[in-house]
Write a structure and sequence with these properties.
single chain; mainly alpha; 6 helices; extended
Length: 129
């Protein structure tokens, strides 16, 4: 029988959720859809219905890209937003210090501080030689 097919519109709706809510991976996206009422509502899922496997995204993403479906969909979304006046031409910046990171505290390594003696005798210090 194989794996059940997944309609492209289901994958594209999930892509919108992934972009809007900055979900890092398909696996996390499936978890959020499975547990979040907002995600289930947007996706049109009944509360009792299970969510598809994360590998469905992996296997179908390349197929959607190959035939230009993803690009056409996102271009249509942008066109609709522009037509509705939801976009402006103002420049804006995002302060990266306000973005939460999922980095592990254990992965951080302290930068080594130079010794006072080594710093004063370096090639750019102008001292000694």
């Amino acid at each position: 029988m194989g794996r059940p097919s997944v309609p492209p519109e289901v994958l594209l709706k999930a892509l919108v959720l992934q972009c809007l809510y900055s979900v890092r991976s398909e696996r996390q996206l499936v978890e959020r859809i499975d547990t979040g009422l907002l995600f289930r509502w947007f996706w049109g899922l009944d509360l009792a219905r299970g969510v598809l496997d994360a590998t469905a995204f992996t296997h179908n993403r390349l197929r959607l890209d190959k035939y230009g479906i993803t690009a056409a969909f996102l271009e249509a979304v942008v066109r609709r937003a522009l037509a509705a006046g939801l976009c402006g031409e103002e420049h804006f910046s995002v302060d990266g210090t306000l973005i939460q990171s999922d980095a592990s505290i254990n992965s951080l390594t302290p930068k080594e501080q130079p010794d006072d003696d080594a710093a004063s005798s370096g090639p750019c210090s102008g001292g000694g030689g």
